[in-house]
Specification:
Number of strands: 12
Strand content: 15-25%
Helix content: 25-40%
Shape: globular
Largest sheet: 8 strands, mixed
Order of helices and strands: HHEEHEEEHEEHEHEHEEEHHH
Strand order of the largest sheet: 3-4-5-8-9-10-11-12
Structural class: alpha/beta
Radius of gyration: 18 Å
CATH architecture: 3-Layer(aba) Sandwich
Number of helices: 10
Length: 320
């Protein structure tokens, strides 16, 4: 959560491009102020931990890239002494999925990175909205391509962990593009002791693909977290049912940042688009943005997800 001892921490929630595109500076945020994982813990604890894990997958202090030692220190302090980076996590211009696998004897975190504003390869992957076959269904080509490139690493990490931890939870998570990769990884692994928690996740596949996730959610924790009008959760559009969201548990942060479980009426695509600048939907969502962001864009900020969910955990609101 925000480090209240830092005089600049409050600005991390401002509707700026910097907060949309990058995690906070080192002194402004304290990762993983959650208790250690326990089976059956309140959902708000799981959500807060996963939100931090997803933001940490960007491996940055604002625009400054972390080095491996930074990532290791944060995760070890949180009780995850073993870590394996996935993809080229610490370089500019990477053209595959990125993230990390971190674990202890009780739980593992498989966290994927979202779109980086200064990486045109990420933007190109976002824009590849043609669909490709996956598990008897159809999914976003760019997301699938990004995960395919690192899949041998992902499976190696999971198989290695399962050798000595056959029943421990593996929380698969990510923000934005990272949420899409987490979703694909969840269905591919089809691990009965895994869970899925996404933040600001776009639509990933067609209704048939969504049915796979909904079926898994009958026996596993599958949560989709949406911050108010977050525009990324409304793309690609659901035109002609080419893309859809799975019918799983939704945690929605309302305009006052209160956490609601399965609200009866979420904002529609039209609601979100109506609050965007003219011409926004004709280009990549990170291009040509004003520095005072409209609400649907500011709501996508990873630090907003992490902070508001941390507050919900601390106050006990939304526990289920």
């Amino acid at each position: 959560m925000l480090n209240l001892a830092s005089p600049t921490c409050a600005s991390c929630l401002d509707p700026t491009l910097e907060n949309l595109c990058f995690p906070p500076m080192r002194s402004d945020y304290i990762y993983f102020e959650t208790p250690p994982f326990r089976p059956g813990e309140p959902a708000t604890v799981s959500l807060s931990r996963a939100a931090d894990a997803s933001m940490l997958a960007y491996a940055r202090f604002v625009q400054q890239r972390m080095v491996l030692a930074d990532l290791q220190k944060i995760l070890a302090t949180a009780g995850y002494p073993s870590i394996q980076p996935i993809g080229n996590c610490f370089v500019d211009g990477a053209n595959t999925g990125r993230g990390y696998f971190a674990f202890n004897d009780d739980q593992a975190l498989l966290a994927f990175r979202g779109t980086e504003a200064d990486n045109n390869n990420d933007k190109a992957a976002d824009a590849e909205i043609d669909r490709a076959p996956e598990a008897g269904a159809l999914v976003h080509l760019g997301f699938k391509r990004y995960l395919d490139a690192v899949w041998p690493q992902v499976t190696q990490c999971v198989v290695g962990y399962r050798a000595n931890h056959p029943n421990q939870n593996i929380c698969i998570t990510g923000h934005s593009l990272g949420g899409a990769l987490a979703t694909l990884a969840f269905t591919r692994l089809n691990d009965p002791a895994s869970s899925l928690i996404t933040f600001g996740c776009p639509r990933v596949g067609n209704p048939t693909y969504c049915d796979l996730i909904a079926a898994a959610a009958r026996t596993r924790a599958c949560y989709r977290v949406v911050d108010n009008l977050d525009i990324v959760t409304h793309v690609p559009t659901d035109f002609l049912n080419f893309y859809a969201h799975p019918t799983i548990a939704i945690y929605w942060l309302d305009p006052g940042h209160a956490l609601q479980y399965n609200p009866p009426n979420l904002p529609s695509d039209t609601d979100a688009i109506a609050n965007l600048p003219a011409g926004f939907m004709t280009k990549h969502w990170m291009e040509g943005l004003p520095d005072r962001l409209p609400e649907p864009l500011a709501d996508h900020s990873p630090v907003r997800y992490a902070q508001y969910l941390g507050e919900s955990m601390s106050s006990g609101l939304g526990n289920r």
